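This section describes the prediction task in plain terms. A model, or a person checking by hand, is given the sequence of a single protein chain and must write out its three-dimensional structure as a string of tokens. No templates, partner chains or ligands are provided. The sample shown here is typical of the held-out split.
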Amino acid sequence: MIRRATLFSLLLAVVSAVSALGAQSPPVRSEQEILIQLEQDWDEAFHRNDARFIEPILADEFMVTYPDGTRGDKAKELEMAIVEQPIESSRLDEFTVKVYRDTAVVWFTQHLVGQSQGQQVALTFRYVDVFVFRNGRWQCVASQSTRVS
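The expected answer:
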């Protein structure tokens, strides 16, 4: 009987220790959650003019099509990131993320509020970004934005 009680106590201690370890580990995030966070971090970095943060997110072959139809590359996007923008707030929502092995497509909406020619303006853009998973991280290879209001 004592042996059973000791074995039961030992088993209970092991289960408790494993449960405690499991409770301490950070939750596992899906690739979709990682990409949404990456988009949000990129947006925040852009609005604080942090090109150093943005640089590794953009692949060397990155290409972008802006709302006016012009195109840019990684260098142009990084140049734009250091220009002070008259933006008071930026909010991203309506995310849809599709992952295809080492490629992902992210659709989302951006809501901007700021000043233009002395007037308060609110603009909405829809984006589609294409990412490739390389060297243990997601990098954006293409982006297109369309102004909807």
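For orientation: The beta strands are 58-65, 71-73, 87-100, 103-116, 119-134, 137-147.
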